[in-house]
Amino acid sequence: MKLVKDKKEKANALHNIGVAYKNLSNYDNALQYHLNALKIREAAGDKKAIADSLHYIGVVYDYSNNFDKALEYHFSALKIRKEIGYRKGIANSLHNIGVINHRLNHYTKALKYYLNALKIREEIGDKKAIAGSLNNIGVIYKNIINYVRSLEYYLKALKMFEELDDKYETANISNNIGELYLKLKDYDKAFSYLEKALKIAREIGAKELIRENYEFHSDLWAAKGNYQKALEYYMLSSKVKDTIFTEESSAKIAEMQTIYETEKKEKEIELLKKDNAISQLELARQKLLRNSFLGGFGFVLILAFVVYNRYRLKKKAHAELEAAHHIIKLEKEKSDKLLLNILPLRVANDLKEKGKTEPESYENVTVYFSDIVGFTKKSAELDPKFLIDELNDIFTAFDNIIEKNHCERIKTIGDAYLCVCGMPEENSNHAKNVVRSAIEIIEYLKKRNHHTKAQWEIRVGIHTGKVVGGVVGVKKYIYDVFGDTINTASRMESNSEPMKINISEATYHLVKHKFKFVERETIVVKGKGDMKMYFIDNG
Q1: Does the reported pTM lie above 0.85?
Q2: How far apart (Å, rounded) are the C-alpha atoms in residues 389 and 382?
Q3: Alpha-carbon torsion 375, 343, 213, 369, what sign?
Q4: Closest CA to 45 of 79, 73, 7
């Protein structure tokens, strides 16, 4: 009996470690521990525990984007749970099978499994799970453009999450309801739910919900014809997005600065101690000379000993001083290099010399904005490490190209890439430099796609105009650019096509004699009205 109990506890421990690894996104280790737990549970014949292991293995495969294996294990878990009549488990299996079909865009199948899970959850009174099912069903109906049914399920889910006092989900679903009312053109209700969501999201500090809310607000004001308000909320959304994606690098800079300052102080204290030791030795020597009653050879020996010791200590202290200076120099170089990765040179120098930098307005700046076509779908299919390595490789190449053409990378936001020319240092060839960079970037990707596993395409938008640049924050420095020019460049990108460079009329007039172009029909741009655009004819 004790042996059985020990094996059960071992299986539970392995299971819990598997859950922990899954939460750390270490899916290989998570899978291994769950499989080991499953093996012990199968030997013991504990059907409920076996089904639990199968269920969690399915979850790990789901998170690893191996949907075929995920479905295989979830169906196995479902079969056992039906055999033993474990209704809560049956509902969970149905729900997870629905999630995978949802992720595969098999909406009809997903809806069927979600509804079956909801029915059981309502029968057993699992309130939190009911609310989750209602929300997911609402998402499905939204995806198949049945907004009325979607709204029906969202409102039911919202009521339940409010009763459960789940603030995050309350804000999340209020956002979704606001978006639906916007699509239904009921702007007053849309505004009401979006304001409710924003208030709660701010209270709990849910940055991603705040960012999404600002985007919905922007769309709402644009639909109402108030483009100034739409622009304000679009910029707010952009700021929050920047914060989300730059917090990690900013924290690293702060950490490096702290390390540098701490080590510098420690070395200074250590050197002061050495200097003090030398001073004490000198005082001892002088005292010895004043009070000495020895003469002749003995006095010479003592003096020689003191002088030698003083020379030896000074030499040692000098060597340590040189070593300390070298260490400080290396740490400073690392800190400076890291700082220059996210800040322009002039701005970085201002911060180091003055501790601050003032925002500036630049009249003649050309802005490049690109994003990767179909990135969201691909990111769900590819291994996370492979995806990060790919982005790192691609953006490093982009950095090299724009640096060669005297442009300045401002930031990346996920798969988006933003760079400028003409700020913070003026450049009379700003438009030509950016267009040339864009052409070289497209050519680089075309060549790269010939010999790589993943094929990547981008859309590029370029616009020229006035830009404001400055540092956001006083502790975690983030250099950012603002103004209508940035938003217009973004609109150029969103109205471009895969592996095409779409430029505005303003940029066209600056480079029309330097490159070949294909004039496009006038396009109605959100928040801008009719705009003329041109594709670069780069072969």
Answers
A1: no
A2: 11
A3: negative
A4: 7
Neighbours of 160 (CB within 10 A): 20
Cα separation, 136 vs 337, in Å, equals: 46
Angle ∠(187,189,195) on CA atoms, nearest 5? 100
Strands (E), 307-359: none
Q: What DSSP string describes 197-235?
A: HHHHHHHHT-HHHHHHHHHHHHHHHHHTT-HHHHHHHHH
**What b/e sequence results for 348-371 when a residue is b if at least 16 CB atoms lie within 10 Å of its CB, and e otherwise?**
bebbeeeeebeeeebebbbbbbbb
Helix and strand counts by DSSP (H, E) for the chain = 19, 10
Integer angstrom CA distances of residue 331 from 101, 248, 260, 336, 510: 51, 20, 6, 8, 44
CA distance 420 to 353: 25
Contact 462, 486 (CB under 8 A): no
pLDDT digits (tens, 9 = 90+) for 167-206: 999 999 999 999 999 888 899 999 999 999 999 999 988 8
Q: Distance between CA atoms of 117 and 89, rounded to whole angstroms?
A: 10
CB atoms within 10 A of CB 455: 12
- CA dist., res. 137 & res. 123, Å (int): 17
Say what the pLDDT of residue 330 is: 59
- Hey, which of 112-116, 210-214, 375-379 has the most confident mean pLDDT? 112-116
The answer for 45, left when phi > 0, alpha when psi is -120 to 50, beta otherwise, is left
Q: Residue 420 and residue 120: Cα distance in Å, rounded?
A: 56
